[in-house]
Amino acid sequence: MAYKIQFTAGGLKDAKRLPKAVRNALAKELRNKLAKAPSTCSEQLREPLAGWRSFHCGKHRVIFKLYEEVKLIAIAGIGKHSSQPTQDIYRRLELLAKRGRLAEDILAALRGFSTGSE
């Protein structure tokens, strides 16, 4: 069974900012790879983003939290890994995590998720 993909508000905003060709290629990769085997096609991140995973698609990184028990992937951000701190996806999400905003965004995304067993 494939995992359901849910975006946080920030993750959806990042996706909408991508050029159409990149967005379409990424959507295909998310459906065909990430949704089918998220643990094997991604990497665990270290502190301060421990508990999060990174899926690489070309130059872009998809940062997500994996919920195995409900087969859910919660995407918090999409962006490039960059040497410039203000443009780096990892640094941006680290700042959100330090402020507690990353957890808030995930909680809001999970509120809209239904397991289909209700």
Question: Which keywords apply here?
Answer:
YaeB-like fold; globular; 39% helix; 5-stranded mixed β-sheet; alpha+beta; single chain; 4 helices; 118 residues
Number of separate helices: 4
Instruction: Give the SSE string.
Output: EHHEEEEHH
CATH topology: YaeB-like fold
CATH class: Alpha Beta
- The whole-number mean of residue pLDDT values reads 87
Largest sheet: 5 strands, mixed
**Morphology:** globular
Report how far apart the termini are.
18 Å
| CATH superfamily caption | RelE-like
Task: Describe the model.
- By secondary structure, the protein is an alpha+beta fold.
- The protein has one domain: 2-Layer Sandwich (YaeB-like fold).
- It has helices spanning 9-17, 20-34, 89-99, 101-111, and strands at 4-7, 43-44, 53-57, 60-67, 72-80.
- A 5-stranded mixed beta sheet has the order 1-5-4-3-2.
- The longest helix is centred in the first third of the chain and has 15 residues, at 20-34.
- The radius of gyration is 14 Å and the shape is globular.
- The protein starts with a strand and ends in a 7-residue tail after the last helix.
- 29% of the residues are buried.
